[in-house]
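Lecture 7 notes: from sequence to structure.

We start with a single chain of 745 residues. Read the sequence below before looking at the structure.
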Amino acid sequence: MVLSSEFLLKTQFLQVRERYKKPRRNRDEHPVVRSSLLHTPLSSRRVLRDFTALTNSVSHFPYDPRSEALDLSAIRMATRNLGGFLVLVLAFTICEAASVFQPISDSHRSAALELFAPVSGSFGSLEETYEALRTFEILGIDKKPDGSSTTCHSVEETVGSSSSTPKDLLYALRVNRILKCKVNEENFKGIVSMLKAAVNDASSLLDFYYSVGSLVLIKEQSSYADLLLDDADGIFHSIKALSQSDGRWRYSSNNPESSTYAAGLALEALAGVVSLASSEIDQSAIGTLKSDILKLFDSIEKYDDGAFYFDEKVVGARQHHGPLSTTSSVVRGLTAFASVTSGNLNLPGDKILGLAKFFLGIGIPGDAKDFFNQIDSLACLENNRQVKVNTVLGSDAPPLTVKLVRASVSGSKDVSIENLDLKFDKESASHFLDVLPKTVDVGKYLFVFEVVFHDSEHEKVYATGGRTQVPIFVTGVIKIDNTEIAILDSDLGSIETQKKLDLAGHNVVSLSANHLQKLRLSFQLTTPLGQVFKPHQAFLKLRHETKVEHIFVVGNSGKFEIVLDFLGLVEKLYYLSGSYDIQLTVGDSVMENSFLKAIGLIDLDLPEAPEKAARPPLQPIDPYSKYGPKAEISHIFRAPEKLPPKELSLTFLGLTVVPFIGFLVGLLRLGVNLKNFPSSTIPATFAFLFHLGIAAVLLLYVLFWVKLDLFTTLKALGLLGVFLLFVGHRILSHLASASAKLKSA
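Now the structure, written as tokens:
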């Protein structure tokens, strides 16, 4: 189990700032304590500090003190319930329901209701139903979807059916343990003999797991007496025969591949055999199994933040499981076996703690199976039948004191604080230190904490994580004095121009220089206690009007000073004369008033660049500049040419109509008529279409003159031409045929 205990160093004038280092699962954090130390009385200066001191303990799991070193992985804000984790994993029959506080929150409950939403009043299979109900039970969700009547009916059918498999019976009995359905006692009696026979005939690990697990659940839910296994030793050795030398297990004797996930199933099955044994199991076999558990923990894997987990090795694709399900299986098996055996499991406390950290660091899984494995495993790590302690899910710790062993500047052996007990606030359940010595100045410190139990008997039950080292950044406002900028003569070193700067204000200086002169900038930095302060970064930047930049490091020799000799810098400056912006950057993680500030302009007069001198690099083009407004295009159209007189245009129009009039007159003189227009229906239709096509061509000419362009007109004329060719051929063929008949007559 994981027991949360929050450590705080509270303050009046100080604020908290957090910095996160995120290696893999976003849990490593480094706190920064802001301090307005200045000249206030040190007795009134307080440091607010919130951190997670992860310690661990194992009830009845004696630990090796050499292995209790613990990595601090989670640093959170003071409002979070964090702190030392005390891990307690032993002596509980089955992981019972637990009261849930932090770090399991309402977000988990909302996610559970969303992931385990029933469809048509059912969660699906009995396995899925059990996972949903078990999750609701652990999280204390009262307003869960109501499907108990349908589910109980399915449970009763499964328990009462002689054709049900041990797997179906196992999950039906698990569901029944939660819902307490009214299962007929006779049904239990009917399946006991079948399950016993299945145990005796089992040839695979899963056969043992489902059959033994079902018998254990019947023992809990029924008063039926004939449940004990007569040959428990033989069954124990049959399961043990599937184990491997590295602590992993095989699913069957025919399968050479070993599995870490199967090891968890085997431990659960063996725990069930021990609880159902009619006589005591051979203790030598129990001892051998404990050694196998230690070998299994030798293969455990670790994240950078101290979280431990089990991962499956190369196993068939059908039997492969991810780190979450594999670790969950081992935790369930380990806690189940520990609950039914006496003696101690000599497991390192940091690895038990690391398992809890692994489940807590996952966040909220988006898969129902993963969500169940996370919550169920945390519940297994939380409960203990012999010692009533709530931990992983965030309950209170046993009486203890958090002691600040020492605090010193990082990299220094000088101790600033030593042997101070943090005070405990019952209302906020937090430990805090309200006063710091006067010798504490801004900087990075290493605080060393340890947990001391009020009751010495607790040391036999819990394995603490030893001393926890926490990096603390005490920040403050750094004083900036004697800031000057000057132009010096290169030959004599005399000051030609010198100006004072107020870096806290907004004044900007304007300077000018040539290549025979120098630029000097100097300033001093002191801490609130008057000590010389050396920031991590101090840069001076010159930025030409063409956006070419040059950065120089400001040196520190008691005070910060930089001298730029322009004669030696002409090549670096690419012989670019003109205006340069001057920018000063001073920054540090403990300097609250770090700044990046434009302090002035300098107009440089540099010599002309030689032919072979280096050219300034091309400046990067802003990729978003192409989306900006474009330059306005100015265009003057050509003045229109002078038009002819109106009378001339009308005269020309009249001349163009004369040929058409002559055409009409010619038709009249020739005596054009419609006597030869076909009288038959089909020839008359083609004749009509032919004349209609001629009219369409004439109309197209008019449209071309009025609005259509040449290409559109030609396309339309091409279509009309094909149409006229077809109907004209038909009507002309008819006329030729009629004329031939007339001549022959």
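Residues 1-102, 384-394 have pLDDT under 50 and may be disordered. Keep this in mind for problem set 3.
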